[in-house]
Amino acid sequence: MEWNQIPLGPLQTNCYVLSNENKACLIFDPGEESAKLSSFLKQKGLKPLAIVLTHAHFDHIGAVDDIREEFGIPVYIHEKEAEWLPDPALNGSHLFKVGKLIKAKPADHIITGEKELSIGEFTFTIFETPGHSPGSISLYFKDAELVVAGDALFNGSIGRTDLPGGNHQQLLDSIHAKLLTLPEETEVLPGHGPATTVGQEMDSNPFLNGF
């Protein structure tokens, strides 16, 4: 499996494209600049199967409708943020006023609980990792030794918790219970900034020391 990190939009939110040898791919958090993302997919000859959202803040969902419609693919989101997609007051686009208000169409599939999910040839484990937002999830691909962590865990930092529904202690609990229990070599693909590993964050992340 191959992954590509594509920073999109004014906040340079990381969109990830995970693809296999058959050119099938999953798209995670298409935050903005749908034309840029579409061009990348076509240049690589990739065949998108679905969009999976780690959470529904505006900077992670801005290109959802364009990409969904262009490639005719479904969207997955956690049940606790299903109502956020069409509501700028919930997804935060009315608050930050970065670009347009985001009013995406409802998701096609609602994720409930922690489970193993298969989409086409891809199988991964869903971890609920709230704290940055109530419906934040992380997607663990055991065979590929990587986890798409959204805005839960960053390289040397953690997600902000001062937005509606955020909870600092809950985020720390999520990180320690769900992410730091993964093998230390697991690559962590965060919503912003460079990738890291579980082991690196265990050793050097100042927000996790002394927990």
TrEMBL record:
Its cofactor is Zn(2+). Keywords: Hydrolase, Metal-binding, Zinc. GO terms for molecular function: hydrolase activity; metal ion binding. Gene3D superfamilies: Ribonuclease Z/Hydroxyacylglutathione hydrolase-like (3.60.15.10). Pfam families: Lactamase_B. Residues 12-192 form the Metallo-beta-lactamase domain. SMART domains: Lactamase_B. InterPro entries: MBL_Glyoxalase_II, Metallo-B-lactamas, RibonucZ/Hydroxyglut_hydro. Coiled coil: none annotated. This is Glyoxylase-like metal-dependent hydrolase (Beta-lactamase superfamily II). It comes from Cytobacillus oceanisediminis.
